[in-house]
Amino acid sequence: MENGAPAVEARRRAGRPPHPVLGPGRITKAALRLIARDGYKGLTMSALARLLNVAPSALYNHVSSKQDVLLLVEDHLMAGVDISGFEAGPWHQAVRGWAWSYRNVFARHTPLIPVIAVLPVTNAPQTVKMYEAVTAGFHAAGWPPDQIIDAIVALESFIFGSAFDVNAPAEIFNAGELAADAPLFTQAVASRASGSGSGPGGDERPVSPSDTAFGLGLEALIDGLWAQRALAPKARHP
Amino acid sequence: MENGAPAVEARRRAGRPPHPVLGPGRITKAALRLIARDGYKGLTMSALARLLNVAPSALYNHVSSKQDVLLLVEDHLMAGVDISGFEAGPWHQAVRGWAWSYRNVFARHTPLIPVIAVLPVTNAPQTVKMYEAVTAGFHAAGWPPDQIIDAIVALESFIFGSAFDVNAPAEIFNAGELAADAPLFTQAVASRASGSGSGPGGDERPVSPSDTAFGLGLEALIDGLWAQRALAPKARHP
DNA sequence: AACCAAAATGAATGTCATTCATATAGTGAG
DNA sequence: CTCACTATATGAATGACATTCATTTTGGTT
């Protein structure tokens, strides 16, 4: 039941079917089922309509484009991002939990990232809700108000980039025939400390290389941002 | 002149036209011209063929798919990323220059990012060359070899995510009708310190919000990574 | 019972990437 | 000089796709 107000008002104007056979909610659920089964390549308007026992053109009475469908999915996923840490706990730990959760949710939905990163949050209630919770956490930690959004954007950029990295194949850094021209790089790849370290849960189990890199970068970013809190904004560069 | 060796060897095997009318080099250049003119939506195999005065199907004698074309473009762009700082200067400054340059190059080529982030570097000479230079810089700065790749991946993730942010519209954080439900967020957006700070060149001119966020995150990441250098790899999380 | 607007339909359109059978052209071998 | 070989170019065809449109169905309201 996402945003019933306009539907109610519209229903007031004239006779309507009381059972909305199709609607944002059902479309979102069907899209998620499709994505879970066949991935984003399987998410076509035809497949979506087929799953809903409806003609493809019928969907356009409820969404104006496929991008609209992606927006619905995105906003639904945002509700799955863990913001509980910002309600009470220490800032460092809240950001950690939020960032891991955020990355894990979108690692399986990377095709959404180019959409999210560029589209306004208007008409995305769950997304706004998440931003409000995160902002509140920063505020409570004494962050300078005029730096909060920039800090969130920086963290989000790292999270989105890292979500792509999760889907990288293991051999992505295999230079192949070019290895001879890149001895230091090849050596660094070979000695990469994969499998060591602790997992996102703090327990001692093997983690993927992308988990290790994300953990390293996240801790660096959290510490670095904390240290720069209240300093003048800078964007210097040689 | 991109890797003439295979072509020469192939020419040795049998009779060939001495003037390669089409080839990776020309295809790459044409693709870049198309992207510059019409953006990535204008980069179609038909348009590419038209620009080269050739039938679309002819392209498939030189590339096996459109993804191959994107790979050619990507590797070409990698040559434009500034790695000069790693040859001599201090580590902090070298990373800074590299990261700004890397982000600026791919901010205008975000459709490539999902491709880059997932595809092996094999057969991408410029890409391998860049990684080698960066690895050498980390090595020279005394970085623990088994952490170099993870640190680079973390920086790259931040860079890729930030490249998307560059293309975000100014009103991306306008909550619209939902503003009432997100007072702290709305206030933080309004007080965002945009226009202040110094530009990437260190001079005093207005910078975009994405520049500010990138500068903030990059400095935090650089400082944080430097501080964590030589510490045990960690990926902890509550 | 008639009306009206939302919603569903089926056919059609245009844009893609990609494939395939065929044709061409230049080169080394005879 | 000529034949055969091979890379490369061609044009037509295919199938997937999002989207549009004229038309019909549907069900509550009057």
From TrEMBL, chains A, B:
Ranges where the HTH tetR-type domain occurs: 21-81
UniProt KW keywords: DNA-binding, Repressor, Transcription, Transcription regulation
Entry annotated with the keyword Repressor: yes
Single Gene Ontology BP annotation: response to antibiotic
One Gene Ontology term of the molecular function aspect: transcription cis-regulatory region binding
Residues covered by region (Disordered): 1-22, 191-212
DNA-binding region(s) from the entry: 44-63
Pfam families linked: TetR_C_1, TetR_N
Name of the protein this chain belongs to: TetR family transcriptional regulator
